[in-house]
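Task: fold both queries, return tokens.
Query 1:
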Amino acid sequence: MYNRNLSRIFFFMTILGCALSVSGLYSMASLNINRRTREIGVRKVLGASVLSILKLINFEFVVILLTAAILGGAGGYLLTNALLSDLYAQHIGVNILTVIISGVFIFLVGTSTTSMTIWNTANSNPVDAIKSV
């Protein structure tokens, strides 16, 4: 009973944390795109492809996501093993493969969230972006 309740609590906290992280990342990407809309329009008029614009703007988010995945993975690995050793005398430790898979999942979800916002703006008409104030 204790294990099931603890598992439910951690699962809920994980889902809530992921949802808040994705919404925050989406907000950061939207604000960054709104600030750089004219730049994207000018780059498109001068011949930049959508893929090059996507790579240029997404690079700063990739750095943030890699830092978060590395620091979060290391911290999660250490804290989870510490929590399990405090709660149980005998337990199965966290595997490093689980931490790597979690980091890759965080990276893919974050990159797809930001790329979707950038892709929509980069595919829009550049005249509208340059014309807007």
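Query 1 returned. Query 2:
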Amino acid sequence: MEKIHILTDSSSDIPHDLVEAHGIEIVPIMLTHEGRSFREYYDITSEDYCRLLETSSEIPGTAMTTPTVFLESYNRAFERGCTHLLAVLINGGGSGTYQAACLAKSMFEEEQGEGKMTIEVIDSKTYSLGYGFPVTEAARMAQNGVGYAAVRDYLLDWVDTAEVYFS
């Protein structure tokens, strides 16, 4: 039987209640501001971040998630008996997070052996809820017993055909 683990990064902006309801893992993007570091989603909320932007003369910086953080996530999923893992991440053209997840996949396969758990790392090609929405839908599908191939195909179709407009 397939056991699918779905993860994304904190830039997907999925509300906490949906993350909890659908068992989505959020890997944090690191924020730095005035010498302090925060894990986006866990240490600072979107509202806190907006207040920070409004009240500070310094714009917070970001740092991509490291391969080690992804590798730890993959290993946790594997230890829980997951057979498949889908990682949908922030636009690879604007962040190194996607590449870090790909590197972690190679590291996982070296450590555990190739084929021990299927890992698909997907470049969302977009930002924010532009990929947060399909991640939530994919998690719902997996919870309802939809198989890995169908969930993966849904995500791949979404990132290849969706258009997101910001205003």
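Both queries returned. Flag for query 2: The first strand starts at residue 4 and ends at 9.
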